[in-house]
Design a protein that fits this description.
Length: 162
């Protein structure tokens, strides 16, 4: 009877251990998103232009939309498990109804263990855009929210592993 209890207790411990392993939160690092991704972004800008009301100068806010598609490449930094570099090799789209092609851009990224993170890219004009993201489907998809400290911009995007 004692060996039957021992066997039953051992089976319970094994089952609980297996359940705990499967219930753990996924762990991510910079290598989780290593490689090439196709992306699409939709952003809105608020642009202030100078105007006049009678003889008095006023600022007039205008809104413009930007839609882009292209390719991002993520490369982990050796020896830094949560950090890497980003290359935007191609992006084109539409800005307020006008077709646009951007030159390549570079940036950096950081991935947290809970599969969230942030990447920042810099344009040739020196403007920084920041993307906060969540990694989904084991790194095959990335959902992003977009903002900029350099100009009034907001948006969202989606990246899919190529």
């Amino acid at each position: 009877m004692t060996s039957l209890r021992t066997l039953a207790l051992l089976a319970i411990v094994v089952l609980l251990g297996t359940t705990l392993v499967f219930a753990q939160t996924p762990t991510c690092n910079a290598s989780t998103i290593q490689g090439a991704y196709a992306f699409r972004n939709a952003m809105s800008f608020i642009i202030t232009t100078a105007g006049t009301a009678g003889k008095k100068p006023v600022n007039v806010p205008l809104t413009a939309a930007l839609a882009l598609t292209g390719r991002y490449d993520f490369t982990p930094t050796p020896g830094q498990p949560s950090e890497g570099t980003l290359t935007v090799s191609h992006q084109s789209g539409n800005f307020g109804g006008v077709p646009i092609d951007y030159p390549p851009m570079t940036g950096t990224y950081t991935v947290n263990g809970d599969c969230t993170g942030k990447f920042t890219r810099m344009s040739a004009a020196g403007q920084t855009t920041t993307f906060v993201f969540a990694i989904a489907d084991g790194g095959n998809e990335i959902e992003v929210a977009i903002y900029s400290a350099d100009f009034p911009l907001t948006g969202s995007g989606y990246l899919k592993r190529m």
